[in-house]
Structure formats: C-alpha cells, structure tokens
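Ticket reopened. Same input as before:
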Amino acid sequence: MKEMQEKILKDGKVISGGILKVGSFLNQQIDIDFLKRMGQEIARLYADEKVDKILTIEASGISIAVAAGMELGVPVVFAKKHLTSNVDGAFYSANVHSYTRDEDYSVVVSIDFLSPGERVLLVDDFLANGQALNGLLSLVKQAGAEAVGVAVAIEKCFQGGGDEIRERGIRVEALVAIESMSSEGIIFRSN
Ligand code: 5GP
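Engineering reply: fixed in the latest deploy. New output:
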C-alpha cells in the first residue's frame, strides 16, 4: 500500500533494536479513515478465499483485524496474552517470545471461539521474527481449524519470520514490506 509507505516515511520512527514506531496511525493513535482502507485491502487480497473468522492478538492487532472483519463480514477473535477471568473453562494456549519486550508470554483463546474445520485468517500489525503469528497458528492447529493465510500491516522482511511461514505453505500478505531500515532510512520491498 503506497499510502502506508508514505505514512511510514512521514511519521514512522526507527528506534534501537530494529523497531519501527508507528504510534501516530496504528499503535497508539488510530487513523480511522486509513484503518478502513487497510481493512478493504486485506479483504481484497483474500477475496478469492472462503474466510469464516479472523484471529488476531491483543492489543495492536485488534483494530486492523476488526477493520478487515467488517469488510469480510466475519467475526473477529483476539487471543489474550494472559489468562484472565474472561477466559473460563477450557482454552488453547501457546508460548510466544515478545520481540519488542524480550519476554515470554502465553496466547490464549477459549475453545468456544475456534472450532474444528473453520477457515481462519490471521491478522496482526507487525510480522518480524514470526513468533506471535506462529503462536496463533498453533492455536488454529490445536482447534483443528484451518489457516487460510496471514495478513499483516507491516512485514519486516529482514527478520525472516514471514518467509519461514511461507516455507510452511501458508500464504502471507503484507500491506507494506520493509526490506531494510535504519535511522538513515527505510527501503521497501516492491510488490
Ligand atoms: P514477531 O513475533 O513476528 O517477532 O513480532 C511481531 C509482534 O511484535 C507484533 O505483534 C508487534 O506487536 C510486535 N512488533 C515486532 N516488531 C515491531 C516493530 O518494529 N514495531 C512495533 N510497533 N511492533 C513490533
């Protein structure tokens, strides 16, 4: 998405540890008109697939997943990062290492919200090493559901997580793919 490339160049900040801050339109403040267009683009990319449900991870994945869910007309489930009283009864869980915080956490979804045979589209804001999405893919597998594919706002290709998922035969779409970045500048992969 050319528009997101321009937004990243205008408002994004590359900080230490290879982290891109996009708080002005995605991670803290949300540009709702742009969010709608991100949802439309994800729906366009997966228009040829039957999608029953979207699965994302709290917190930053939720807005983009909801935007895509509204366009596709399907429910959105978000995995919780902690077992709270909102998740009662049996649940699926997977361990994830957080890239931005350098700590482990669990992703948890109640068994009520993922069912065998469901075709699930996975959505998140960033794809870096692939840990978060691999955790979600594990939940889909545990449920006996099927992963239709992955859609992320921003893939940082240089961290390799997206290609590892593709090598497993799972479709991965990124609205913007970053080949390399530093405080000197950002190079996008041309689609
Ligand atoms: P992964 O698990 O693929 O290594 O990292 C993906 C998760 O880490 C995303 O859910 C996202 O919240 C966070 N993340 C990874 N890289 C970045 C980044 O450069 N900027 C921001 N804002 N979040 C990131």
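The beta strands are 13-15, 19-21, 53-57, 76-79, 91-98, 103-110, 119-127, 146-156, 172-182, 185-188. The pocket of guanosine-5'-monophosphate is lined by residues 19-21, 27, 57, 60, 99-100, 124-132, 156, 161 (CB under 6 Å). Please confirm and we'll close it.
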